[in-house]
Amino acid sequence: MNPTNRELLTSSHWGTYWVDVDDDRVTALRDFGEDQDPSPIGQGIIDVLSGPTRITTPMVRKGWLEGGAGAAREKRGQEDFVAVTWDEVNQLLADELSRVRRDYGNRAIYAGSYGWASAGRFHHAQSQLKRFLNCIGGCTSSKNAYSYAAAEVVVPHVLGTFRGFIDASTSWESIASDCDLFVAFGGVPLKNGQISQGGTGAHVQKAGVSAAYKAGVQFVNISPLRSDVMDGINAEWLAPRPSTDAALMLGLAHTLMVEALHDQAFLNRYTVGFERFAAYLAGQQDGIAKSADWAADICALPADTIRDLARRMAKSRTMISVAWALTRQDHGEQPYWAAITLAAMLGQIGLPGAGIGFGYSAVNNIGLNRQQIDYASFPQGKNPVDDFIPVARLTDMLENPGGRFDYDGQSYEYPDIRLVWWAGGNPFHHHQDLNRMRGAWAKPETIIVNEWCWNALAKHADIVLPCTTTFERSDIAMSPKDPYLVVMDQAIKPIGQARDDHQIMCGIAAKLGVQEAFTEGRSAAEWQRWIWDDSRQRASQDGIELPDWDSFQQNGWFKVPEPNKPTVMMEEFRNNPDANPLATPSGKIEIFSEKIASFGYDDCPGHAVWLEPFEWLGRAKPDQLHMISNQPHNKLHSQLDHGSVSEGDRPHGVEPVTMHPADANARNLSAGQIVCIHNIRGACFAELNISADIRPGVIQIATGAWYDPDGNTCRKGNPNTLTPDKGTSALAQGPIAHSCLVSVSLR
Ligand SMILES: Nc1nc2c(c(=O)[nH]1)N[C@H]1C(S)=C(S)[C@@H](COP(=O)(O)OP(=O)(O)OC[C@H]3O[C@@H](n4cnc5c(=O)[nH]c(N)nc54)[C@H](O)[C@@H]3O)O[C@H]1N2
Ligand SMILES: Nc1nc2c(c(=O)[nH]1)N[C@H]1C(S)=C(S)[C@@H](COP(=O)(O)OP(=O)(O)OC[C@H]3O[C@@H](n4cnc5c(=O)[nH]c(N)nc54)[C@H](O)[C@@H]3O)O[C@H]1N2
Ligand SMILES: [Mo]
Question: What is the dihedral of CA 192, 196, 202, 204, to 10 degrees?
């Protein structure tokens, strides 16, 4: 399997490791020497590569197999499965796809298939699925990511692009050398920096924060959790009520305005619409000045603290950092628009170490100084179907065929979905209000899932196609977001009858007569080489020489040289806004957007505003608490929840929840007890952890525990039994998991 004499290597979203193998079993993962801060997450896979949670053969739900498509679909998740051969399952799939396409058209197939799957440029499950479906007429798809859907739609109206700027975030080096004050809404939690999509070579977030601190940068952690900024850097901690950041930012902006601390020259040259926003701040129409005192009432922070912070921000070289989590709340567009507006008022956008940053909280690659190379990927082809949903409108779509929804200025129709196919994501992890989703999930006639482990998604399918893990196939990790290009060696043979997603699609393509269109005559190995060679040419055009394929394989990895100076986001625009206009209608920063205003949305008007969230502490009943369900420190989402690292943090089999001592006392609860977190949508169990490092009135439980329902209660502690499923606004329709009220009592 290993064409060279070197040791075996692998890459994952959480890091690169050397792989030890004995008797066709992975026995250990050893740290990649280049990484000074390796993540323990990877170790969680070793014990679950085989064993009872592994899917080893194609499986069909009994009712579906016996009664045909649609039979006993309300029993999904409860019925037994029957093992079948690959040939049998391929025939079933070919017949079923043909039926659905013939009777309802390709738009009746939903394969948005959102999710992170595994690293590897070629074996990207979603690309494999989509390319295959595009060969047979396409499918209904999804737009945007759960991570930051609200920002993905609003920020392009304000700055011209969102993804373009997260890929060009000001680097840690620039922050260390030029920033004085780093104001972090949602913090910079080190737990999240373990991850980078598509492969992580070396972890830099901790070193970046530490170096900035040593260089004299003062960090302000604005978050319900003290731990959202690392220990030992003397960070200030401000804990406003969750989902009130937009109000806090408006209070800061108002202070800048009334104290004439804003940079009018910057606003004149680089922005449009400040007057409209200023009129709103002053309360010219609604009679409410958005002052520090006004904000203080909403956020429950002292007004003087807000005024003081505004003055310090004006006086210092300031970086405003907004966590992606701020988008995953009701009206999640607003904190992003307000933060950009605030940064524009400070006039430091485009200066070294200052301005605005999207997601220093989120992943290793934000702040990582690197060359941005547009590597080739496995081409998905073109989807002939125009229908789509904003990614988090899944349940709405399944519940309302023919119903209408708004999105970014237009109105669209929900298609009538008959067949759902997921490869490389887990809606029973990522979606909100899972109990409601489970009801909607019972509507399609057929649900197909490619998975390697028996999680809730696989259990709720009709046809389960067992896929390999990265150890069972060869691939290459080459993410434009990371400087390390890594060979992912096949370390062991596929477990049971598992097949690569590519091979799975080839099998079905052959039955449907589109194998040639799907593969273009290339084997998996030939495709990888094609991706490498094409990427090499692209890099070369950017003046970067990648090694040839054989040398790359021989060495196992290659590090793209760092750029010769730190990245500064929007530097070119600042230096010459006429030559480098933003891709907005005005070419400038749109503090007021005529375009968004023209949509006429009450829940997203033409400039940043404060709108009361769907659920928040300002309207909580006396016994209610605000639940934050943030990213887990010991895994990536639901991945490896069943492995030793995640299970090791859960001695009693349920996920920990953190609560303030005052809230625990008020409920007569003590640490270590198993509690039930509940609201009108559902409930989950959790083990109580008590800590003064969380804002009173707030509880925190990580996402990721595998959904294990007993009625509407998840026994293991999946917080998405509780979160509301509602769009951020008619503009973006993003998920709002972080705007959620709950009650907690003893189980
Ligand atoms: N309450 C709450 N909910 C949230 C969030 C939150 O903050 N709070 N965050 C949201 C965010 S930001 C995100 S990105 C989503 C994440 O949601 P997802 O990305 O859907 O979650 P994962 O658990 O990473 O799902 C990936 C799935 O792919 C499978 N897989 C891995 N490798 C392969 C492969 O090679 N082939 C195939 N076919 N499958 C593979 C894994 O077993 C796993 O089931 O969750 C969202 N949900
Ligand atoms: N270890 C690990 N790392 C990950 C992931 C993972 O699953 N595991 N997932 C990755 C993915 S897909 C994504 S999208 C990113 C997400 O990156 P983020 O969205 O930045 O991460 P979160 O942990 O959800 O949120 C960051 C912090 O925001 C705080 N917060 C929540 N609500 C509010 C609020 O209303 N106001 C303020 N001021 N703070 C609030 C929470 O305390 C939380 O710890 O993380 C990535 N990194
Ligand atoms: Mo995400």
Answer: -50
223 lines ligand 2 (CB under 6 A): yes
User: Distance (Å, rounded) from C-alpha 591 to C-alpha 609?
Assistant: 11
Q: Which helix (H) or strand (E) holds 628?
A: strand 625-628
User: Does the pLDDT value for residue 159 go beyond 90?
Assistant: yes
Q: What is the pLDDT of residues 78-121, one digit of tens each?
A: 999 999 999 999 999 999 999 999 999 999 999 999 999 999 99
Say how many Å lie between the CA of residue 30 and the centre of ligand 1. Answer: 25
Per-residue confidence (pLDDT) for residue 714, from 0 to 100:
98
- CA–CA dist 587, 584 (Å, integer): 5
What structural domains does the chain harbor?
Answer: 8-48 (no CATH), 59-144+383-479+484-559 (3.40.50.740), 150-371 (3.40.228.10), 617-746 (2.40.40.20)
- Is a pLDDT exceeding 60 seen at residue 2? no
Whole-model pTM: value is 0.98
pLDDT (average), residues 414-424: 98
Q: Is 601 a catalytic residue?
A: no
Cα angle 209, 215, 220 (rounded to 5 degrees) comes to 55
- 271-299 in b/e form (b: 16+ CB < 10 A) is bbbbebbbebbbeeeeeebbbbebbbebb
How many angstroms separate the alpha carbon of residue 99 from the centre of ligand 3?
A: 35
Please check the confidence at residue 392 and state whether its pLDDT lies above 90. yes
Asked if 343 contacts 158 with a C-beta cutoff of 8 angstroms, the reply is no
Mean pLDDT over the full length of the chain: 97
The alpha carbon of residue 528 and the mean position of all alpha carbons in its chain are separated, in whole angstroms, by: 26
Residue 18: active-site member: no
Select which of 114, 270, 337, 527 is catalytic.
114
277: three-class secondary structure by DSSP:
helix
Substitution site in 219, 223, 329, 649 for ligand 2 pocket (most atoms within 8 Å of beta carbon):
223
The CA-atom distances, in angstroms, between 208 and each of 33, 62, 118, 235, 349 are 19, 53, 26, 15, 20
- Does the pLDDT of residue 600 top 60, yes or no? yes
Burial 170-195 (b: 16+ CB within 10 A, else e): bbbbbbbebbbbbbbbbbbbbbbbbb
What's the 96 CA to ligand 3 centre distance in angstroms? 32
Question: In the predicted model, is pLDDT for residue 717 greater than 80?
Answer: yes
